[in-house]
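re: that chain from earlier
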Amino acid sequence: MATAVVATGLGTFRIEASAAGVSKIRLPGAGAQVEHDGDGGATARLAATQIEEYARGERRDFDLPLDWSGVDPTHRRVLETLREIAPYGHTVTYGELGVRSGVGDAREIGVHMATNPLPIVFPCHRVVASDGLGGYGGGVQLKRRLLELEGALPATLDLGDV
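^ sequence. v structure.
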């Protein structure tokens, strides 16, 4: 397992990769800032570069090998459906993602988004509540910044004090 840490204008991200591919991305504020090489070191560095490019507004899609070994098939289907139906600059509601993935209701989708091991690559920040932004593992402020970066902040959302 290898870890790469990348500081961006959005905060510091930590990427974990195995020989098979990227297995985890920790959002700013989550996890210790350590870096070492090992199996997956080149992949972790590639992911760090792509996240830097994304944070600068230079990348819209990610092209990375992924390690799905810790992800159950239903969770993977939800994440893959998300990436398919909510490309850069677009949002989808929790309920719509539930219907489109065939997995369940908005609450169940919320659980899948809260346990997304690969945020940014599988853009759970693009999943919004029908009446607001909804939650986000990196905090609602980061979710808002990511949506603003992409030009995807829905004008109809009641942001309250966010």
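Residues 41-55 form the longest helix (15 residues).
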